Amino acid sequence: MSDIATNGRVSTLRGSSVREIDDRRVRVVLTITCTGALAVLAASLFVAGARKNAQITGLHRHGVPVVVTVTSCMGLLGGSGSNAAGYTCRGSFALHGHRYLDTIPGSRERPPGTTLHAVTLGSDPGLLTTTSQLASDRASAGVFLLPTVLVLVLVVAVVLALRHSRRRSPPASRH
Q1: Residue 117 contacts residue 130 (beta carbons within 8 Å)
Q2: pLDDT of amino acid 22
Q3: Residue 93: what are its φ and ψ, rounded to 5°?
Q4: Residues in contact with 83: Cβ distance below 8 Å, sequence separation at least 6, in sequence order
Q5: C-alpha–C-alpha distance, residues 83 and 90, integer Å
Q6: 104 by DSSP, 3-state: which?
Q7: 10-residue block means of pLDDT along the chain (175 residues)?
Q8: What are the CA-CA distances from residue 25 to residues 16, 21, 79, 160 (Å)?
Q9: Domain map (residue ranges) of the chain
Q10: What is the rounded CA–CA span in Å between residue 39 and residue 134?
């Protein structure tokens, strides 16, 4: 007779035996892990959308106009690395007697020394946008569409998991 038939163990490793995997426990752990990850992702996207809308609103209401002088531009490679995908340019500007160096939004190539009109916040000079980009940016409820869909998927998944667990759990005995 084999070792499995005599003592029920599948295998022995340094004195410990490998037992059958409890499929139900694995499903529960995977379900909790996936729903937790989905909840964190949805919450993160809600926060990012709210922050983006707040930045746009802040720039529209409290933006300070500045003149940015392009200091450098670097080409970005796309796909296989053989074609240009755009440019990242950096520029400097003065605000409240301090000089700042920041990335200029957009992907256009701008020769060094070129000046452009931009808007920043006096309280956060790291938030910089061009006036033309700000003119087309608006706070939008659309940034909340994907996280809302994820929350709906999460709710449906939790309801289905609860229904499934109630169906599978044995009725409580009355003694």
Answers
A1: yes
A2: 77
A3: -150, 160
A4: 77
A5: 21
A6: strand
A7: 52 61 81 92 97 96 96 87 85 95 92 96 93 93 96 91 75 58
A8: 20, 8, 43, 17
A9: 3-52+142-168, 64-139
A10: 32
Beta bridge partners of 13: 16
DSSP characters over 114-149: -EEEEEEETTEEEEEEEHHHHHH----GGGGHHHHH
The DSSP bridge pattern shows strands 11-13 and 16-18 to be: antiparallel
What is the greatest pairwise CA distance in the chain? 88
Q: In whole angstroms, give the CA distance from residue 41 to residue 161.
A: 19
157 and 38 Cβ atoms separated by less than 8 Å: yes
Give the C-alpha separation, 82 to 84, whole Å.
Answer: 7
CA nearest 125: which of 148, 95, 150, 152? 95
Structure tokens at 76: 């970005």
Helices (H), the chain: 3-7, 23-62, 131-136, 145-168
- DSSP-assigned beta bridge partners for residue 77: 84
Contact 53, 140 (CB under 8 A): yes
Global pTM reads 0.71
- Give whole-number Cα distances, 129 to 57, 91, 125, in Å: 13, 11, 10
Q: Whats the size of the chain, residue-wise?
A: 175
